[in-house]
Amino acid sequence: MGNEGIGARVLRKEDKRFITGKGRYTDDITERGITHGVFVRSPHAHARITSIDTAKAASMPGVIGIVGGQELIDGGVGNLICGWMIHGKDGSPMKMAAYPAMDPAVVRHVGQPVVLVVAETKAQATDAAGEIEIVYEELPSITQLSKVLEPGAVEVHPETAPGNLICDWQLGDEAATEAAFASAAHVVELELEQNRLVPNAIEPRAAVASYDTGEDHYTLNTTSQNPHVARLVLSAFYNIAPEHKLRVIAPDVGGGFGSKIYIYPEEIVCLFASKKLGVPIKWVAERTESFMSDAHGRDHISKARLALDSDLKFTGLKVDTIANLGAYMSLFSSCVPTYLYATLLSGQYALPNIYANVKLVYSHTVPVDAYRGAGRPEAAFLIERIVEVAARKLGVSPVELRKKNYVRDFPYQTPVLMNYDPSDFITLMDKALAHIDIDGYAARKADSERRGKLRGIGYSSYIEACGIAPSQAVGSLGAGVGLWESAEVRVNPVGTIEVLTGSHSHGQSHETTFAQVVAQRFGLPIENVNIIHGDTDKVQFGMGTYGSRSGPVGLSAISKALDKVEAKAKKLAGHLMEADEKDIVIENGELKVAGTDKKIAWHEMTLGAYTAHNMPEGVEPGLVEKAFFDPINFSFPAGTFICELEVDPGTGVTEIVNFVAVDDFGTIINPMVVEGQVHGGIAQGIGQALLEGCYYDENGQLVTASFMDYCVPRADDLPSFAVDHIEVPTPNNPLGMKGCGEAGAIGAPAAVINALTDALGTEDISMPATPEKVWRAIQATRPAMAAE
Amino acid sequence: MYATNYQRATSLDDAVAKLNAAEDGKFLGGGQTLLATMKQRLAAPSAVVDLTKIPELKGIGVDGGTITIGAATTHAAVAGSKEIAAVLPALTGLAGSIGDPAVRNMGTIGGSLANNDPAADYPAAVMALNATIHTSKGSYSPEEFFTGLFETALDEDEIITKVVFPVPQKAGYEKFRNPASRYALCAVFAALTSDGPRIAVTGSGNEGVFRVSEMESALGSNWSADAVTGVTVSPDQMLSDMHGSAEYRASLVSVLAGRAVKKAG
After folding, report:
1. A355 contacts A318 by C-beta, under 8 angstroms
2. B181 and A709: CB-CB below 8 Å?
3. What is the CATH code of the structural domain delimited by A2-17+484-629?
4. Which DSSP symbol is given to A27?
5. What is the pLDDT of residues A211-259, one digit of tens each?
6. Which residues in chain A have Cβ-Cβ distances shorter than 8 Å to B257?
7. How many Å lie between the alpha carbon of B134 and the closest alpha carbon of chain A?
8. Architecture of B55-166 per CATH?
9. ipTM
């Protein structure tokens, strides 16, 4: 049994159904009389809708109904909200423009839904959608972030947000930071772009919405990372139905990366239409619809300055960032480039003075929100790039410059709100250096040169923050929700266990790892434990999964509930064996009286709890316990990544030849699962660095709207990663977990670009560093090499 | 996809008759371009006439100095042909580099040539090896057959039956893939044929596959990579898009030509 508990490489319980094709995704769900919805979307970046003629479409075969934006307004459907209120440096609140689910008057990005067509088959709905005549008056648009704030720029929401400025936000002490620069021995400057990314979960978004006239009750099956939050928002803000009249189910979900946190127009419209038209409606996005309607990620431009003293200690960091939020403010868009970004700008370093100014802006692009890492990749990239550039400019080893400035004493209070968990940054770097075989690097580089290749090595020492918390603190910073998690542990009469968790698994392996924690506690096999999630009718209110919170927060709630189960189990066992509950120990599925040979099996105790024939005085029958866990702080995973790569100067192709990740995630439940998440995160980080470019043309068209043009990383783009860990548990949650889901995506881009600029001998290269960009950089510095 | 009628032809005559009987019919090879286009509703033929089951379009033959490949032969069949590999491994390698296994198991050489996608692989081999394209109406040299982007000399009701490749002394194919689509962004097929060296470029030409005569002349006196890497082609004749500018593609032609020659040995 010991081999299934915390720390064991247990194979995933959920894989049996996924590998055998028995997964049950939203598109697999159907019901009697199901109909199919297709959205007609804006082909323009910015246009006024002059007229919508649905007459021909409405008379086509199989068409049940057509719903437009005016009907939603007439039906009392509320506008979409951004759930985190931030304030500008002058104290004014962010300028949030109205975000109707379907605006009947104006469209503000390509792909914005305008009309829903519902028909008996998807083909019929698609045919009819093609016959809806929408007359647009095209208007000038703006999609390039660098031009959004220019005087006279086209405005996205002129009444609400003049000049496209949503919020001019700041964090840190500007005067103290300026003073640090005034007395600095060295100042290093860098301008950086954070390329816009498309999340591309393997399962596109989907919804099955139905309305029961008999019960006046809605059911929504949908691709959600947080079904309870979806229900709350659909009830409280979009006025679909009160919470007890709306069930939201997130069944098997094929990846999210943040993009399935939000409640999008399509789900709202399908629910509304299911009642209005009296039919259950299924909508499943096509891939190009996903490109044009799933919230995008990143998209910053920044200027950074780093001050150092004569001993090369960092004394100040000043950052100016413009963050693109797209055409509307998505659910958590305001906190991503502010409280999830600027608060991490201290990196792993003792950096006494930091000031960040972030201008959040509108543009005629798909809304931008949290995507794997959400703010922390942007921060880690900025600090790790400028530290690397500083080392090169000042002629010191990038490893030594980092070590000289690492935080060594914990807990550590940064000047930008965060109080870091204990970790060991020196050991993370040293282990990474050993894995990459740093002593052999010079020989490998010489060998590359002999073969006509350019070799480079780059470092990235990231820190990030998971399990956003505590609720009271985030509330004071503007969060519209609490950020705790809930759990219920139900022990059945026969001793098997069901755990209802507010976390949601869409690839994270909770069914395995959560069961391991339960199994460990009572010495039971994991097959006796079932994890239930993703259904508002089954599970108590929960906050869902994002921000690598399911371990640090979700499992902590389960752990707290297990404490209560354990206490009651010992009380019952003590009573049954006529011993003091304090003397009861639980191991290998048995409850024993310490120091004696008295014991009962786990299932004898649980059966006793339900027969209730012999209960202790005042103890209720049954064995079910609940807990809510609200962390007292964020948790802070950290690590050092080293990337070694080779560039073909003739073609500009970059091949990553070695990649090492050494992380401190605190306690690890299942190393295999953690490594899988690290691999996936690094793949996406390498994708951001080298492959993934999301582009709009001068007319505001999204020109990368399919996998033919948007390059996601594939297996042959990646090396075999060397992944290792240290485990310094956080004291801030019962299991000591720090979270691991996003770390790879956070740390990888800087490691890759630092290695690439090392190989090329250039200060910077913008992401994605495509072969042509690399080739041009070589043309500029070594034209002879590029001809071979 | 709009509704369409699928019809399976049993002979060349049957195929032409079925096409002519349809209001707006299209011949269907492996469908790796046409079906994808139809799924996106960018094409809506009233009927598709499947050519791949016509017996005379099938089969691979290697005889003396020539390789004959039936038009309905899949890329996977060519890639896996030990007979072809023994005399012209550059061709089996090219076929094995097309798309992914699903594409290779459906896509055909005839379909690829008839479509003449500027980023397709086969046109480079056909052009460099001076293959003959046989059809239901006659035969063509590569220069006669390829007439522009997605354009060929084929009539609407003309069917490619087979392609005959003369076996060269040496051949090498070097491809640079578009990282996203994995089509050729630029690829060069270098061959030393009985008529002398031939260099064909696909993926980059703004009129489709093309030869580089300057490189061919240089190779005539000195068959080596160095002979071609110094020869530049004009960006004016190159495609240009977000994946590769004309200037970059032009540079790739020289680099890849050198590597193709080196591969050829």
Report:
1. yes
2. yes
3. 3.30.365.10
4. G
5. 999 999 999 999 999 999 999 999 999 999 999 999 999 999 999 999 9
6. none
7. 32
8. 2-Layer Sandwich (3.30)
9. 0.95
